[in-house]
Amino acid sequence: MEDVVGSVPLTWYLVVAAALFCIGLYGVLTRRNAVSILMGVELILNAANINLVAFWRHVGPEQLDGVVFALIVITVAACEAAVGLALIIGVFRSRRSVDLSDIDLLQG
Amino acid sequence: MNALTTLGLLSPEILLLITALAVLTLDLIWHGERRTGWLPYLAVAGTLAAIVATLAIYGRGESILGEMMAADDFALFFKLVALSATALVILGARQHIAARARREGEFYFLLLSATLASMLATAATDLISLYLAFEFLSLASYVLVSYLRGDDFSVEGGIKYFLYGAVASAIMLYGMTLLYGATGTTTLRGIAEGLNRSAGPLASLAIPISIMLLAGFAFKIAIAPFHQWAPDAYEGAPTPVTAYLSVASKMTGFAVLLRVMVVGMGDFQPTWARVLGAFAIVSMVLGNLVALQQPNIKRMLAYSSIAHAGYIMVGFVTHGLDPVGFTGLNGVLFYAMVYVFTNVGLFLGIIAFENATDSTKIADFAGLFRRSPVLAISMCYFLFSLTGIPFTGGMFAKIFVFGPAMQAGPFGLLLAGIGVVTSVVGAYYYLNVVRTMFFVAGDASAPAVPVGRLVQIGLVAAAVVTLAIGVFPQPLVDLASRSAVVLGMLP
After folding, report:
1. Which terminus of chain A is more exposed, N or C, with fewer CB under 10 A?
2. Range among B102-116, B185-199, B255-269 rated most confident
3. Which sequence spans correspond to the domains of chain A?
């Protein structure tokens, strides 16, 4: 198992992460639904996590900063989803919609 | 270094944390107006105690918690900025929040939490602690903006702020991971060394990484082109929160930006200085021009704050272009402190007016001078300071930012020129509010605007400090210069 993981070059991980980042960014920019945008953000955060762990293994597994960073990102992502969904519920209560096109009181 | 020293250097944060938790607990167990009325006093007392603790450890600059944080003068200065803003905002929030929300204790708790996050972020010298503190600040701010759950505008401002913020911070995080991969470390000092060691191959990464990091920082600062959330969040948020976002949150963004760019990516100064210079130009032009057409004073001040972010950025950018013999960086610090007292002071006046009339339309300010001369004159003074008229702190702030820029080659001269011209445009909409208050006849039968005691204290404090800086700027200049030296850039 160790050999299989070791034999995959760093670039592959980075390409997967970059692809995930692009998918997430595409979702964020094109979706009008607040929940879908939140999902796009989660994809970007996971892309960052893949980067962190891949780099950590590549540049120095003896130091723990990369994986610790990844763990912290996972925690923060959970907090962010909690706050975000609470806000989305708040909007749904007042508008009966989570579509950004309907959230248009503030303009100018 | 022993644990006791570390605790001593963290004492402002610890004091603030204790205060925040005390406010939250007492809010749960206290019932009735008579007792919860003490919560804002407790919150202000805790903030003032943290200010005293910050001043007590000034000049002891040390790296703590294994290079995760630095309790240096630069961080302490921005902690003072955030704490002063918080104290003033709490003074203004009491009446406003109590009249609009069911519970007000949580509001002070969130405000103190956001300030705690600001303080940690300004001190962070490691990508991990930086990201954590930054997200902490963001999460507290999202909730603060949508604090009035029954108010459609507040909720809408909150969700827009959240969606922009979540995307911006995710992109910033991706940039941070690339920086970690390129250098193999997460400390800013280590990153600087790593980038220096392999400057050749990494040079091509400098622009994309800078832009990704800037997405996060520039979002917090609300500088164009990452400003789209600001007008909506500022208008929708409860007015005390608007005041808080426009100073504390913005200046924390600047502190983080300065530290990361100067300490971590100092070698790529020519690259990011151009990018930030372009941001500054767009902000100054767009902020001032769009502010001209705003009928709502909160929205107008949102665009005005985008413009001011541009002015401050001029000081920072010209610093990047000419590292020798330049003092734009302490201009940035000076501007930050002045802007806190001026802008929050103006917002306190707006809060007093909104408490009485429930309106923030500029047209409704007509005849305010006749209704409440003292309130109108104090707001007028803060507007003069934002414009940069003599005998206000705002004038020196502009001089200290634009002055060095004028001596920093053609690009600096261009930035300063645009800054001066757009400031004149800014004078039009600031003085338009003054004109409305003093010379436009309002409803003749309208009663005087009552100003609550706490708001009065805040207004007087803000006006006295702004005037003191406007007459005797030297002490603040010394403090700002001393604090800026720590970043190792001043000669």
Report:
1. N
2. B102-116
3. 2-102
- Residues of A with CB below 8 A from B294's CB? 108
Nearest CA in chain B to A22: B171
SS (H, E, C) A25-82: HHHHHHCCEHHHHHHHHHHHHHHHHHHHHHHHHHHCCCCCHHHHHHHHHHHHHHHHHH
| First-to-last C-alpha distance (Å) of chain A | 58
Could you please state the CATH topology (level 3) that the domain comprising A2-102 is classified under.
Helix Hairpins (1.10.287)
Q: Is the pLDDT of residue B270 over 90?
A: no
Q: Which of B128, B139, B153 sits opposite A72 (nearest CB)?
A: B128
B165-215 pLDDT per residue, tens: 999 999 999 999 999 988 888 998 888 888 877 666 666 777 888 889 999
How far B247 CA lies from chain A's nearest CA (Å)? 22
Shortest distance, CA A8 to any CA of chain B (angstroms):
17
Q: Do A72 and B132 lie within an 8 Å CB cutoff?
A: yes
Distance from CA of A25 to the nearest CA of B (A): 8
Rounded CA gap, B365 and B349, in Å? 11
Specify the amino acid at residue B374: V
8 A C-beta contact, residue B299 and residue B235: yes
What pLDDT is recorded for position A7? 76
DSSP secondary structure string for all residues of B315-350: HHHHHHH--SS--HHHHHHHHHHHHHHHHHHHHHHH
Answer yes or no: are the C-beta atoms of B320 and B272 closer than 8 Å.
Answer: yes
Among B214, B206, B211, B404, residue whose Cα is nearest residue B320: B404
Neighbours of B272 (CB within 10 A): 25
Distance CA B254, CA B151 (A): 31
The tokens describing B154, both together, are 């507040």
Residue B473 identity: P
- Mean pLDDT score of chain B: 89
List, for residues B26-71, the tens digit of each pLDDT value.
988 887 777 778 899 999 999 999 999 999 988 777 778 778 888 8
**Within an 8 Å CB–CB cutoff, is residue B190 touching chain A?**
no
Here the ipTM equals 0.95
Neighbours of B445 (CB within 10 A): 5
Phi–psi pair at B448, nearest 5 degrees: -65, 150
Whether residue A10 has pLDDT greater than 90: no
Which residue in B163, B172, B234, B299 has the most chain A C-beta atoms within 10 A of its own C-beta, making it the best mutation to test that interface?
A: B163
Q: Do B235 and A106 touch (CB under 8 A)?
A: yes
Q: Closest-CA residue in chain B for A28?
A: B167
Alpha carbon distances (Å) from B81 to B19, B244, B298, B338, B375:
18, 11, 22, 9, 25
Helix (H, G, I), strand (E, B) or coil at B7: helix
B33 to chain A, minimum CA–CA distance in Å?
27
CB-CB neighbors (< 8 A) of B177 in chain A: 48, 51-52, 55, 69
